[in-house]
Design goal:
The chain has about 170 residues and is mainly alpha-helical. It has a single domain, classed as Ferritin, core subunit, four-helix bundle (Ferritin, Up-down Bundle). It has helices at about 5-30, 40-65, 85-110, 115-145, 150-165. The protein binds MU-OXO-diiron. MU-OXO-diiron binds next to helix 1, helix 2 and helix 3.
Length: about 170
């Protein structure tokens, strides 16, 4: 059985995953209307779906353990970006925030001696290592490319490989 405080903390994480899904959907849509960023758009559409899965996994866990998973209210995310680079910087910043939130949950599970939740959260710990890695790799690439148009062409062409290399679907 989840404690009240653990349940609240997990529901906060549900909200953060839903907000991530929303934020990446906005990134996908913005990329979709830029010339030559078709695969970047695809990358964020896929990423958005994945965040929704993270949310659902948490919701099922909360309910299974005798809690009540709450569907969160969401604000409109940032929908336009001044550049591709700034969008990817936001992506990394967001993933770092998610990692730190997961770490706090792990801390709380340990301090409450809630080993079932602690065990459940290990999947998210590994997932965040992977997500942060992907976001960092992409930011590093964009830094290297700068304003070079052929570099940006290759960046878009190869972006889905970043997911495959990271063991993503
Ligand atoms: Fe589910 Fe990328 O945080």
């Amino acid at each position: 059985m989840l404690s009240k405080s653990m349940q609240e903390a997990l529901n906060q994480q549900v909200k953060l995953e839903a907000a991530s899904s929303h934020a990446y959907l906005a990134m996908a849509s913005w990329s979709d209307i830029q010339p030559g960023l078709d695969n970047v758009a695809e990358y964020f559409f896929t990423q958005s779906e994945e965040e929704r899965e993270h949310m659902l996994k948490l919701m099922r866990f909360i309910n299974e353990r005798g809690g009540f998973a709450l569907v969160p209210a969401l604000e409109q995310p940032v929908v336009t970006f001044k550049s591709l680079k700034s969008m990817f910087a936001d992506f990394l910043k967001h993933e770092i925030e998610v990692s730190s939130s997961i770490n706090e949950l792990v801390d709380q599970a340990l301090s409450e001696k809630d080993y079932a939740t602690h065990n459940f959260l290990q999947w998210y710990v590994s997932e965040q290592i992977e997500e942060e890695r992907s976001a960092r790799v992409l930011n590093d690439k964009l830094e290297m490319i700068g304003e070079d148009k052929s570099g940006l062409y290759l960046f878009d062409r190869d972006i889905m490989m970043t997911r495959q290399q990271g063991g993503k679907k």
